Amino acid sequence: MGLIFSVITPPLVGLKINFSYFAFTCICVIAGLCVGIISFFIGRYTLIKSINKTKVYSKEISEINFENHLHLDANGEYSKVPDSLSLMINTLKSIIKKLNPQNISNIRNNYTK
Q1: Alpha-carbon gap, residue 89 to 82, rounded angstroms
Q2: Which pLDDT belongs to residue 72?
């Protein structure tokens, strides 16, 4: 876009005709829309890709499969999700190790009454 503007804008800015202002405005609006639409789809694709990976990983965790790790190519706040899930998995592993069959029976008895 920058290359196109550097070629098109000097003749339009140099002219003092109302048509050149109109043409320049139209080109700016079209360029802005193009950049906005392209940015939207790129952002949407990368975000949906990360969300789908997280969804699959969460389903594995719900099935007590702690062997896989989540790797995301994300920036910002969403890049912290894998670390948070790893912390949760480590906590769950330690809780599961502390449980013995007697404790599990007591827990079941308390919740089935």
Answers
A1: 10
A2: 80
Percent of the chain at pLDDT above 70? 69
* 3-state SS class at 17: coil
Look at the chain and report how many structural domains it folds into. Answer: 1
> Could you give the angle at which helices 18-62 and 81-98 cross, rounded to 10 degrees?
10
- Write out pLDDT tens, residues 55-70: 998 888 888 778 888 8
Residue type, 108: R
Question: Residue 33 is encoded by which pair of tokens?
Answer: 């829309």
Residues 1-25 as b or e (16 or more Cβ within 10 Å = b): eeeeeeeeeeebeeeeeeeeeeebe
Give the domain range for residue 81: 2-112
Q: For 74-84, how does the pLDDT look when each residue is reduced to its tens digit (9 = 90+)?
A: 777 777 888 88
